[in-house]
């Protein structure tokens, strides 16, 4: 019998509450597949409790890369559970040929066969230009994106407010995206919104994508297809430069080919 593939899912922030929400979505998704892929869900050891913008993302990227590199030998691929074009993904694709993806990428791609236009329901207005930039990076165009709608929360609110409070805010923003922006598919644009999709879908009657679940399913496809990151061009592996790095973190040192003392 072929051994199950192993997926590492990382929450780039330090919130244990959000990590638990992510893990529940991961477990639910993989529970449908009969054990062909196993997953471990972790969070960054240090950094920020929630990623609320570009500065937070850069801080979280360092700790995400450090955590992943320290665990990577035991896994076949990595899913970064942040709904953004997270900087850690490009870095990790240089450091390993094992497939690496973030949940924004998977959610956008999953939406394309389901409708002509999608809208992203995000936390706050601060994310609107960042996610528009992310869509442009993923698709090369904003043509398929009807809108990015704020739900007037922080990322941390999605796991600290009551479920009903979060659902009410997501429902309102999703309804506006469908009614006013012409959205045919809704993408829930934060890992903390996981498992809210079914209630919104039943009310609005359009597909609603749980980004964590979409990421898990996309990674399952890559892992079972035995696909690897291309070594040509953008993600060409960099040569080991152990004498050029001066940081205290074992995972980062490993990426540069230097073993901790």
TrEMBL record:
Pfam families: Asp_Glu_race. InterPro entries: Asp/Glu/hydantoin_racemase, Hydantoin_racemase-like, Iso_Racemase_Enz_sf. GO terms for molecular function: amino-acid racemase activity. Belongs to the HyuE racemase family. This is Asp/Glu/hydantoin racemase. It comes from Absidia repens.
């Amino acid at each position: 019998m072929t051994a199950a593939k192993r997926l590492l899912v990382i929450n780039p922030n330090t919130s244990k509450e959000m990590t638990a929400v992510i893990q529940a979505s991961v477990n639910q998704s993989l529970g449908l597949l009969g054990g062909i892929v196993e997953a471990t869900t972790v969070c960054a050891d240090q950094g920020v409790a929630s990623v609320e913008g570009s500065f937070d993302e850069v801080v979280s990227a360092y700790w995400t890369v450090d955590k992943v590199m320290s665990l990577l030998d035991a896994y076949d691929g990595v899913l970064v559970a942040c709904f953004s074009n997270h900087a850690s993904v490009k870095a990790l694709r240089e450091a390993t040929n094992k497939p690496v993806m973030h949940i924004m990428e998977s959610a956008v791609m999953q939406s394309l066969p389901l409708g002509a236009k999608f809208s992203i329901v995000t936390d706050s207005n601060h994310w609107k230009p960042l996610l528009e930039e992310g869509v442009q990076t993923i698709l090369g165009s904003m043509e398929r994106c009807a809108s990015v709608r704020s739900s007037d929360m922080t990322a941390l609110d999605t796991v600290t407010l009551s479920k009903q409070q979060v659902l009410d805010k997501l429902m309102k923003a999703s309804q506006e995206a469908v009614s006013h922006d012409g959205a045919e598919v809704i993408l829930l644009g934060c890992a903390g919104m996981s498992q809210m999709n079914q209630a919104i879908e039943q009310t609005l009657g359009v597909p609603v994508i749980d980004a964590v679940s979409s990421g898990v399913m996309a990674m399952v496809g890559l892992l079972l297809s035995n696909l690897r990151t291309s070594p040509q061009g953008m993600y060409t592996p960099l040569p080991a430069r152990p004498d050029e790095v001066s940081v205290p973190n074992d995972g980062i040192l490993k990426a540069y080919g230097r073993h901790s003392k």
